[in-house]
């Protein structure tokens, strides 16, 4: 399988089940100072809102080993290591102290989940009173966010084929974030060969920013890209799933309509707005447009493992949890060891199962906890065997990062009581 097809593999299967509607440069000094200013309050908040379940130290150590194999140690001067050339395209930014890391290669999906993993580690050690370790992983969060914004938030080169649309509101100076594909053309292709902007990558990044107290940056990224991704359209409007790197919609895209991208946008925009301390910057208008577009929308559930896991993750934030019954029904198909043929897709299903506590239990319709743990143990054995073979496995970075998040789950992915529920 060609690595250029990675983005296609990240799209959920179209075999879905409809549900009945219910009532439902940038590591700046200002960034660092905001984290320092909020540190005391946030530390208390995190300790009081950490999920009741927590990973074992062995799983934490395994997660760190996986992350280190991709990014290097969190405190290393050349953190983060660039992605392999086979997995991500080059960036125009210069970063790091060594020749090996000066030319960065970043991939938005992988880095979004890595930020969530590092934040989970920071909170894990903070709760245990290990302040130095917590501080190291907070630093990894800030650094990785800075590198991604500096790389994927800017054109990859000065070529016309790589130009991006300037934005006064975006923290990067340009609208949106590139996904980081190896090849790039404008307009982007209908498939997955060329670089572009995918909303189902950007929503994961916004979730990571909301979870790591980078609220202003998240609001600015959201406001900068929203006018390009959202269109009222003829069917009530919604989020376009893909744009070219210059934020222009390819001609072949279907007309915008309510979909899971629209629903996920409402979730992450609401999370950011609920923590908004910058009165002049607000996502209220964008949230209102999304709510209007979603009137009457019926969320869907797929048996594709990655799609199923992400639907389980986001269903926590939807009033009435409209997907729960169908997620439980399709769990046996999503949570199958045969999906280890494309490991990160199965790891996505494990993340959803371990994060959404409405799915696992001892009732007849629930997913048995032992089944999930057995599949996680099998995944650990598989992944570390692949790593021990002395060569980089296909999709190596995304496989390792997604499994690290699964090992730390629920971590920072579990909904907290202070967060809003969305109504559709």
Summarize the structure.
With 424 residues, the protein is mainly alpha-helical. The protein is 49% helix and 5% strand.
Description:
49% of the residues lie in helices and 5% in strands. It has 424 residues and is mainly alpha-helical. The chain is globular, with a radius of gyration of 20 Å. The two termini are 39 Å apart.
Count of helix runs = 15
- Shape field: globular
> Strand share of the residues?
5-15%
Number of extended strands: 8
Largest sheet: 2 strands, antiparallel
Strand order of the largest sheet: 1-8
Rg, alpha carbons: 20 Å
End-to-end Cα distance, whole Å, is: 39 Å
Q: Which consecutive residue ranges, at least 5 long each, have pLDDT under 50? A: 1-8, 12-52
Helix content: 40-55%
- How much is the average pLDDT? 86
Task: Give short descriptive properties of this protein.
424 residues, mainly alpha, two-stranded antiparallel ribbon, 15 helices, 8 strands, globular, disordered N terminus
SSE blueprint and pairings:
Elements: H1 6-9, E1 16-18, H2 29-49, H3 57-71, E2 90-94, H4 99-102, E3 103-105, H5 108-127, H6 131-152, E4 197-198, H7 199-211, H8 215-229, E5 230-231, E6 238-239, E7 242-243, H9 260-274, H10 284-293, E8 300-302, H11 305-315, H12 324-334, H13 343-355, H14 369-387, H15 396-408
Antiparallel strand pairs: 1-8, 2-3, 4-7, 5-6
